[in-house]
Specification:
Elements lengths: L6 E4 L5 H14 L8 H5 L3 H13 L3 E8 L2 E10 L6 E9 L8 H15 L4 E7 L3 H9 L3 E9 L2 E12 L2
C-alpha cells in the first residue's frame, strides 16, 4: 500500500481494457512525456492491448505495474529487460493520475520496477524523460536516478529533448 493513495501490483492479463483506457488518458494528459502519440495508440487494435497486458502480467522479460485505487487503475510503469545489454532494464510509460500526484504513487511504481530488476539480477534501470517534464525529472532524482549525459530528440516533437537517466539497483 502506498499510504492511503493507491496500491501497486502487477497487472492481470484480463485488465487490458482498463490498461488501454489508462494509457490513452496518459497520452492526452501529458502528450510531450511519451515517445508515442494519442492518435497512434488510439488506432491500435484490441489485440495489441491484450498482448501488452498479457506480457505485462506473465512475461519473465517485462512487467507492467499498475497503481490501483477504488477498483480503478490510476497509474502505471512498464519495465523491459534489455535484450542486448543483459544487465539492464528500461522503464517506459510511467504515468500517475493527476489526482494522485505528489502522494508517493510515482515513487511506489518506480520502486516496484527497480525491485523487479534487482530480483532478476540486473545492474541498473534506464529511462528517458523529456526536458520539459520537470516534475518527472525531480521524482526520478528523488528515487536515485542520475543523468547519464545521453540525450535524443523526442520522436514526434524533435524540439523536445529526452534525457537518459540511470539508477543502479544491483
Amino acid at each position: 500500500m502506498v499510504g492511503p493513495a493507491a496500491s501497486v501490483r502487477r497487472i492481470r492479463a484480463d485488465e487490458w481494457p482498463a490498461f488501454k483506457e489508462l494509457r490513452l488518458r496518459a497520452l492526452l494528459d501529458a502528450p510531450t512525456a511519451f515517445g508515442s502519440t494519442y492518435d497512434e495508440q488510439r488506432a491500435l487494435a484490441d489485440d495489441h492491448w491484450q498482448r501488452r497486458a498479457r506480457e505485462g502480467a506473465e512475461s519473465d522479460d517485462s512487467v507492467l505495474f499498475v497503481a490501483e485505487r477504488d477498483g480503478a487503475l490510476r497509474g502505471m510503469a512498464w519495465a523491459v529487460a534489455d535484450a542486448e545489454r543483459r544487465d539492464l532494464a528500461h522503464l517506459y510509460g510511467m504515468f500517475v493520475d493527476p489526482a494522485l500526484r505528489g502522494r508517493d504513487v510515482g515513487r511506489a511504481l518506480v520502486e516496484a520496477v527497480c525491485g523487479w530488476a534487482r530480483s532478476r539480477g540486473l545492474r541498473a534501470v534506464l529511462l528517458d524523460v523529456t526536458d520539459v517534464n520537470a516534475p518527472a525529472i525531480a521524482l526520478y532524482e528523488r528515487c536515485g536516478f542520475a543523468r547519464t549525459g545521453r540525450t535524443q530528440p523526442l520522436p514526434h516533437t524533435p524540439s523536445i529533448t529526452e534525457i537518459e537517466m540511470e539508477r543502479v539497483v544491483g
